[in-house]
Design brief:
This protein is of the alpha/beta class. Helices cover about 25% and strands about 35% of the residues. About 35% of the residues are buried.
């Protein structure tokens, strides 16, 4: 099976394999190839430039004809259907809130039997609620905990799912935002949570400063833990209301991240206040399919015009489907 891969000398093969594992881009369904001199490490997706920079010198991005590894049992083999779940660290999160207890227990058992990386299986008892955006969970099987360490793009995030909101579904989006940031930029993450945007940006060493704000004291606790865990220095963690903190940091931001899709529109005045002339707001919203962008763009424009500023829309995109006929969207708007 032809697949894109990293070709590297055997002496450097193990360090390269560890790097690919840390970025979760090593395709474990294929057998690592080799010849007399080189190893060929199969990739599960196109690597980002910053990921390639982390590899040992002397590698080559090429194609190779790989052999399939012997297929291990998967949950579908035991259940007869493919269950919907997210993996956060070593915790499996069942997302179907309508599962009956017996079916949930069967799924949990199948996950623990077939996925050795999963140590605990939980399901939400409530939707995301309250100003801190958290959910209540039930541990169905495995270790009785909701705290874990999640790895993503070479970063580690310690999080307790019951104390601070986190989703792995935005990993690609977080990497996309990184591509907008230039060397020496100042970034303000208005709703930072445990730091998945802020720490990825800070660890890239492109921003001169990342200011990470959140109102949830538990989220800020884990944010600070993750700053230490990832050994990043160019980041400031602040427990506070983004509206009040915007007054302190007015006009400093080259980028303002507004990842609070259900209510980011309520903070647009503050985001504009934070943004220097020519700075960019990364605005997230939940919108209906018949009005994906225009109403949100108008809200951004109105917030800018209140203080005599204008906007230029640089990009608008659908991030993912959120619910029937509703989408999580992102708009990049330059504030002039």
């Amino acid at each position: 099976m032809k697949r894109q891969c990293i070709k590297i000398s055997k002496k450097k093969g193990e360090p390269a394999r560890r790097v690919l594992l840390s970025f979760e881009i090593l395709d474990n369904s294929l057998k690592i190839g080799s010849d007399e001199t080189f190893l060929y490490l199969p990739l599960s997706r196109e690597p980002a430039p910053e990921e390639l920079e982390s590899l040992p010198e002397g590698f080559e991005l090429t194609d190779f004809d790989f052999e399939l590894l012997e297929k291990k049992p998967v949950p579908e083999d035991l259940l007869g259907f493919n269950p919907a779940y997210d993996v956060i660290g070593d915790i499996a999160l069942l997302e179907d809130e309508n599962l009956d207890a017996q079916t949930a227990l069967k799924i949990a058992d199948a996950l623990l039997r077939t996925q050795p990386n999963i140590k605990s299986v939980v399901r939400p008892l409530t939707p995301v609620i309250g100003e801190f955006r958290i959910r209540e969970f039930e541990v169905i099987a495995g270790e009785p905990r909701t705290e874990t360490i999640h790895r993503e793009y070479g970063c580690r995030y310690k999080v307790d799912l019951a104390r601070a909101y986190f989703t792995p579904r935005l990993s690609t989006e977080r990497s996309r935002i990184l591509s907008w940031v230039k060397d020496g930029d100042t970034v303000v993450d208005m709703f930072a949570g445990v730091g998945p945007y802020s720490i990825l940006l800070a660890k890239s060493k492109k921003p001169a400063k990342v200011i990470a704000i959140d109102k949830n004291p538990d989220a800020v606790y884990y944010l600070k833990e993750n700053i230490s865990l990832n050994s990043v220095k160019n980041i400031e963690a602040i427990k506070g209301d983004a509206r009040e903190e915007a007054k302190r940091f007015a006009g400093i931001a080259d980028h303002v991240i507004m990842n609070l899709p259900h209510s980011a529109h309520e903070f647009l005045d503050s985001a504009v206040l934070l943004t220097k002339p020519g700075g960019i707001i990364h605005y997230y919203g939940i919108t209906p399919e018949d009005d994906l962008f225009e109403s949100s763009i108008e809200l951004i424009r109105e917030a800018a015009e209140k203080v005599g500023r204008k906007i230029e829309v640089l990009e608008k995109r659908v991030v993912r489907s959120y619910a029937p006929h509703q989408y999580n969207i992102c708009i990049e708007a330059k504030i002039l």
